[in-house]
Design goal:
The chain is of the alpha+beta class and 233 residues long. The protein folds into two domains: 147 residues, Winged helix-like DNA-binding domain superfamily/Winged helix DNA-binding domain (Arc Repressor Mutant, subunit A); 71 residues, Winged helix-like DNA-binding domain superfamily/Winged helix DNA-binding domain (Arc Repressor Mutant, subunit A, Orthogonal Bundle), CATH 1.10.10.10. It is built from eleven helices and ten strands. Strand 4 and strand 5 form a beta hairpin.
Length: 233
């Protein structure tokens, strides 16, 4: 994600908006500003867990959880229990066989380790520990996890074991383009079904910007539909 997009997103999630209003079909899911921000965030970082979501959006965990449950009830968001955590992701945006990749990269430290390998292919575990100021045990666990999911491979270079990023994200991204188109169609259908009169402001393979309205109230829904391009930002 370009730096400008990241800053714009931070400004967006911090903006103040009016409370939701009740229409003919009841309270709309995405006219509510908190739920809209939650949904937009999960499109950028699928498989995020509650503490990361509440921190990013600057809302309490209880508030985030309540709105996430509403999005689940409305079939816009899916949850997955992983160990002691519950992870959330937009319904239909990513396939089941990519959830493990997004789950791993939703962890800030793992994401930083992977980005370091992308920027510094051939790094050893010692290089990672020194450059990132993490323990050797953490470097070992991180590279092992990346290997297990096929995100990294290793070669033996004399006494050194060097790690390289694979092209798995690129391949999975290419395989997700059709799903992205379907996801956009389903979002527009959902908005129309809620009586929000969706008006496309901008539509591309990687994003969808829609004006939605309920009575006199209007809002903008801005979703990224290419999480492979944003998960490492």
């Amino acid at each position: 994600m370009p730096e400008g997009v990241g800053r714009a997103f931070q400004r967006m999630i911090g903006r103040k908006e009016p409370e939701e209003k009740e229409g003919r079909r009841g309270i709309s899911l995405l006219m509510n500003p908190v739920r809209r921000r939650l949904f937009e965030y999960l499109c950028i970082r699928p498989c995020s867990h509650l503490s990361d979501i509440s921190k990013a959006l600057e809302v309490s965990p209880n508030t985030a959880k309540w709105h996430l449950n509403k999005l689940r009830e409305g079939e816009l968001v899916v949850s997955k229990v992983s160990g002691r955590r519950t992870l959330y992701y937009p319904a239909g945006l990513v396939s089941q066989d990519t959830l493990g990749v997004f789950e791993l990269l939703s962890e800030e430290r793992m994401r930083k380790v992977y980005v370091h390998l992308v920027d510094n292919p051939g790094s050893t575990q010692s290089d990672l520990a020194k450059s990132m100021r993490i323990s050797s045990q953490t470097a070992t666990r991180s590279t092992q996890k990346l290997e297990q999911l096929g995100l990294a491979s290793k070669i033996q270079d004399g006494i050194y074991t060097r790690y390289f990023p694979t092209d798995i994200l690129k391949k999975k991204r290419e395989g997700n383009f059709t799903r992205q188109k379907t996801f956009q169609k389903n979002i527009l259908k959902k908005l129309d079904g809620e009586g929000l009169k969706p008006k496309i402001v901008r539509r591309a393979s990687v994003s969808l910007i829609v004006e939605i309205s309920l009575g006199a109230e209007k809002s903008i829904l801005n979703v990224s539909t290419d999480p492979f391009a944003t998960v490492l930002a």
